[in-house]
Every structure is written in structure tokens, then in C-alpha cells.
Design a protein that fits this description.
Elements (H helix, E strand, L loop, with lengths): L17 E16 L4 E17 L8 E2 L6 E11 L2 E10 L2 E8 L4 E6 L2 E14 L2 E8 L7 E3 L12 E3 L4 E8 L3
Antiparallel strand pairs: 1-2, 2-3, 2-4, 4-5, 5-8, 6-7, 8-9, 9-12, 10-11
Length: about 180
Amino acid sequence: MYHGWPVEVIDLPTNDGRQTTYGGTLGIDVVRSIGTGRQVSAYTGLSLVDGRIWPSDESISRYPIGGMVPAQVKMGADLDWGRFSAAATASVVGRQRLSALVDSGTDFRRQTIAGYWTSDITIRRRSVMERMNAVLKIENAFDRRYRTINERAYINPEEFIGIPQNPRRISAGIELRLP
């Protein structure tokens, strides 16, 4: 009982140690009109982030921040041509840094899992009928087999360190605009 209420667990968060984090994104966007109802746009962006943690436990030196990807690149292009539009995107994700620490003898480093890249494609035909568009979407177009960080893997031994992601997925459908 706590203040007259039945409780099973009391959680008391505290700040402990210190952390420095830094990073940023550099991107370029280009849009070009090619007459009435025609436009091409493209973008690319590079994101970098990193940092260090200094725990309050003096027996452990500083170590890199975990549960993150230090470098990523995203790019894409869109084409609008009358009633048709198409979009292609690509994402490149660098080596993924996990939360698990490895003692290298002189300091601590994070375990990592492989990076990956994916590409998605969307094609849309507007006004197939009044108030109706047709859409075709291909996710993970090149059927890349990759894994992403699973933070729960170190507290539950039944979980994968990296979570397997979806293979290629193709979906088609219609969009209806209501009056």
C-alpha cells in the first residue's frame, strides 16, 4: 500500500551521469515545372548524429550512444505529368548501433548490426472516373532482406537482436474523394 492505494511497483526515475549529443541534416530540394500540369521534383538529404555517454559509475569510461544509426541518406524524385504521377524513393541506413556494450579492454564500444538500403515506388492515375484515382505502390521494390534495431532484445532473450522487416510488398487500390 502506498498512500492508501494498492501498488505492485514504484518506479523512481533519476538523472544519472551525463550525455553529449550532436548532429544535423543537410538536404537539397529541386523543383522544376515543365509546362502546364507537368513538374519534376527531387530531393536528397544526409543525416549525421553521434554522441557520448559518461555514466556516474566511475569504473566505466565514456562510450557511444546506443540504439541509433549515426548516418542515413534519403533521396527521391516525383514526376507529375497531367493525370499521372510517379514517385521513387531510396533510403540508405548505415551500420546500426545497438545498446549492448562490448569491453574492448581499453574502453567500451557498442555492438552493431548491418545497415541496409530500400527503395519504394508509387504510381498514381488521377481521375480514372469522377472523384476516383488509381494507385500502385511497391514497397521495398528490390526485395532487400534487412533488420532494424530491437531495443527489447537485451531484456527479453526470446527476441531477435535485429527485427526482420517486410519483403517486397505490392499493393494496388483506388482513392475515392467524397463530395
